[in-house]
């Protein structure tokens, strides 16, 4: 099977179910950003020093594939697509709570950086926020799984706390934001 099909050369692509849409359709932007997020989560998983969190990140990547396939499906598609499960949001919340137990309470904003692994987690968090915004925009014009937006919201929180936990595990300085102007 060839990787290239040439069917998208005129600026359109097919959703699952065969419906053709423009490549700049909100649905394409939403699941394309989920794909980008999944790639960044893979990068974070590759550099994460915590084996337990690596497993959480692996689970996140699988969930992002579920979300992407949901978003890539035409509403009238008859293909069975897996649903997002409530326990996937709860898994993120449990991981956040566990990591926060070993972190100092946050009293300031944190500047991204301090270590490459930490910076990767911050980039993933920002891409996750964009994916969430794209899904909110899509939801205003189409039905999408009602769990997608809460999952992405919680995932961005998870990635922020993970960045802090990785900074601690790696002995990296957590740089607090201090305004240069008053």
The profile of the biggest β sheet is: 2 strands, antiparallel
Question: Looking at the structure, what is the overall shape?
Answer: elongated
Kindly name the structural category. Answer: mainly alpha
Task: Specify the CATH homologous superfamily.
Answer: Cobalamin adenosyltransferase-like
Topology-level CATH name:
Hypothetical Protein Ta1238, Chain: A
C-alpha Rg, in Å? 18 Å
The share of residues in helices is 55-70%
Low-confidence stretches: none
Order of helices and strands: EEHHHHH
Structure report:
- This protein is mainly alpha-helical and 182 residues long.
- It has a single domain, classed as Hypothetical Protein Ta1238, Chain: A, CATH 1.20.1200.
- It is 58% helix and 3% strand.
- The chain has 5 helices and 2 strands.
- Strand 1 and strand 2 form a beta hairpin.
- Helix 3 packs parallel to helix 5.
- The chain is elongated, with a radius of gyration of 18 Å.
Give the secondary structure arrangement, pairings included.
Layout: E1 12-14, E2 20-22, H1 26-47, H2 51-71, H3 86-100, H4 116-139, H5 148-170
Antiparallel strand pairs: 1-2
Helix pairs in contact: 1-2, 1-4, 2-3, 3-5, 4-5
Provide keyphrases for this structure.
182 residues; Hypothetical Protein Ta1238, Chain: A; two-stranded antiparallel ribbon; elongated; mainly alpha
């Amino acid at each position: 099977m060839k990787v290239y099909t040439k069917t998208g050369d005129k600026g359109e692509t097919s959703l699952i179910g065969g419906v053709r849409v423009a490549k700049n359709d909100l649905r394409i932007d939403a699941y394309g950003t989920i794909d980008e997020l999944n790639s960044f989560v893979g990068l974070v998983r590759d550099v994460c020093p915590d084996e337990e969190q690596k497993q959480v990140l692996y689970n996140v990547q699988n969930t992002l594939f579920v979300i992407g396939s949901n978003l890539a499906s035409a509403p009238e598609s008859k293909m069975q697509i897996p649903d997002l499960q409530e326990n996937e949001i709860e898994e993120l919340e449990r991981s956040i709570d566990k990591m926060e137990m070993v972190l100092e309470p946050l009293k300031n904003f944190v500047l991204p950086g301090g270590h490459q692994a930490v910076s990767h987690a911050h980039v993933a968090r920002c891409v996750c926020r964009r994916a969430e915004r794209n899904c909110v925009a899509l939801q205003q014009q189409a039905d999408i799984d009602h769990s997608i937006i809460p999952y992405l919201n919680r995932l961005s929180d998870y990635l922020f706390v993970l960045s802090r936990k990785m900074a601690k595990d790696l002995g990296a300085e957590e740089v607090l934001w201090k305004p240069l102007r008053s």
